[in-house]
Design goal:
Layout (H helix, E strand, L loop, with lengths): L1 H20 L5 H5 L3 E9 L3 E6 L8 E6 L14 E6 L5 H7 L3 E10 L1 H18 L3 H7 L1 E4 L5 H8 L3 E4 L9 H14 L5 E4 L1 E3 L2 E2 L15 H26 L4 E2 L23 H18 L2 E7 L14 E2 L3 H17 L4 E4 L3 E2 L12 H10 L5 E4 L5 H4 L4 H11 L4 E3 L2 H14 L4 H17 L6
Parallel strand pairs: 3-5, 6-7, 6-17, 7-8, 8-11, 11-12, 12-14, 13-15, 14-16
Antiparallel strand pairs: 1-2, 1-4, 2-3, 4-5, 9-10
Helix pairs in contact: 4-15, 5-14, 5-15, 6-7, 8-9, 9-10, 13-14
Catalytic activity: Hydrolysis of terminal non-reducing N-acetyl-D-hexosamine residues in N-acetyl-beta-D-hexosaminides
Enzyme class: hydrolase
GO molecular function, one term: beta-N-acetylhexosaminidase activity
């Protein structure tokens, strides 16, 4: 009888204690502490922020936890999947309403950061996406041509996802000046920007063409292969990455994956000048080196330039059969994708075997081939929409809307002040689906996370 009375008093006392804490706190909560499972977003010595998808919630949520009750020790890395058990009797609703951290009794690592990276990035992308307006989402889909001194203000206004610099943007400038200009743009960005350049080597050397940055321009792919083979190619890729990263550039629009063994072809001097197998090996080595260095790579110009003319100046048609593309032109692109390339750029050539009515960059059929034949789920990017192969036939607003409808995730152009509003308006009118916009922005955000631009 005494034991039963003691147990009754203990239970009664617990009930009074629970009722005193909060009417919402039940006896079962007292004896079964609350747990949270999610991904470590950030932490310091005293607190930890967890990103998690709670049941019934429309978007990922964050919760902050008090770590002072845990034994001293190293914390898991950002992105690790963890399970947190709260101290018994914690009134989570009351503490979260007051903005106070939740007291932790136990922290368990369920999945290390490396293994959990893809899931963590996916959830973080959803969190970022949920906080964006339609205008901000569309802005993320533009890789805008660097507008010079107006760049920080334009970035503040339009929030484009990336900017690409050309030779004029490096001319007569010191490395410190270039870094300062890029940093000013990044400071205006609510989501860190992709900062790109064409540094192929040979004819296209936007950065190393400035003697204040490098004594001489990087050599062409053909020169590298002739003088040192694939070892020289790989070493050159690493050197380019180091130089570009020192200037705060995080994307190089390379490697060129086009095939040409005819010196009369427009694209020939920018290619390896070798066969499909050698060019595929070249693409694999360059893209692999860039991936290991944390430098964004852009495979170009899908589905393969071949004998096509200069689309900077005019329309160009390619009448080769589909079998040629499948057996030859696709090989370097496939090798680059398998080596970790984050983006593929689509040309403005009309590929008659795939779509005789549209430039590849504006063709849904070509984009379907890229997704399916190469099993590619990264960022698809247009060639510059200001090239005359496009401007002679399409207005800026029409071209941008058609580019998104075709399946591009990002648009390369300097006319973003016309094109961003045109895409936004097309979504509002129902011409374009916001679900498609969201899918593209997810890919852009995933690419940025892979490059370490977005950490928390």
């Amino acid at each position: 009888m005494k034991r039963l009375l003691s147990l009754f008093l203990i239970i009664s006392a617990c009930g009074l204690l629970i009722t005193g804490c909060s009417p919402a706190l039940t006896l079962s909560q007292f004896f079964s502490p609350v747990t949270f499972t999610g991904y470590l977003l950030k932490s310091d010595d005293a607190t930890l922020t967890l990103l998690c998808q709670n049941e019934g919630a429309k978007e990922p949520e964050t919760s902050v936890f008090d770590l002072t009750g845990l034994p001293q020790g190293s914390l898991p890395e950002t992105g690790s999947e963890v399970k947190i058990t709260l101290k018994a009797g914690t009134d989570t609703e009351s503490l979260e309403t007051q903005g106070d951290p939740l007291p932790v009794r136990r922290l368990e690592v369920l999945t290390a950061s490396d293994a959990a990276e893809k899931s963590f990035h996916s959830l973080l992308a959803e969190k970022l996406l949920a906080g964006m307006s339609l205008e901000e989402k569309v802005g993320q889909m533009f890789f805008a041509r660097y507008p010079g001194p107006a760049a920080p203000e334009d970035e503040k206004t339009w929030q484009f996802g990336g900017t690409i610099l050309f030779g004029r943007d490096f001319k007569d400038k010191s490395p410190d000046q270039i870094r300062a200009e890029i940093n000013a743009c990044q400071d205006a960005a609510r989501v860190p920007m992709l900062v790109g350049v064409d540094e192929e080597g040979g004819d296209v050397v936007r950065v190393s063409g400035n003697p204040a940055i490098r004594a001489e321009g990087f050599p062409s792919p053909q020169t590298l292969l002739q003088k040192g083979g694939m070892d020289a190619v790989t070493a050159d890729a690493h050197e380019k990455d180091a130089l570009l990263k020192s200037l705060n550039i995080n994307v190089n629009f390379a490697p060129v994956c086009d095939l040409s063994q005819n010196p009369a072809d427009y694209i020939y001097s920018r290619t390896t000048g070798r066969d499909a197998a050698t060019t595929a090996e070249y693409a694999k080595n360059v893209a692999g080196a860039m991936t290991s260095d944390g430098m964004g790579s852009v495979l170009k110009h899908f589905p393969g330039y071949g004998p096509g003319g200069d689309t900077h100046k005019d329309f160009s048609r390619d009448s080769r059969p589909l079998e040629t593309f499948e057996s030859q032109d696709f090989l370097p692109f496939r090798a680059g994708v398998q080596a970790g390339a984050g983006s593929v750029l689509v040309s403005h050539n009309v590929i008659e075997a795939m779509d005789p009515d549209h430039p590849a960059s504006l063709s849904p059929k070509v984009h379907e081939v890229l997704r399916d034949a190469l099993d590619f789920d990264g960022v698809i990017l247009t060639d510059d929409l200001d090239m005359e192969a496009i401007t002679k036939a399409y207005g800026a607003d029409t071209a941008a809307v058609q580019a998104v409808a075709a399946g591009n995730d990002m648009i390369l152009s300097s006319r973003y002040t016309i094109e961003i509003p045109a895409v936004v308006e097309a979504v509002r009118k129902g011409t374009l689906s916001e679900d498609q916009i969201d899918a593209s922005v997810r890919r852009v955000l995933a690419w940025k996370m892979d490059l370490g631009l977005i950490e928390n």
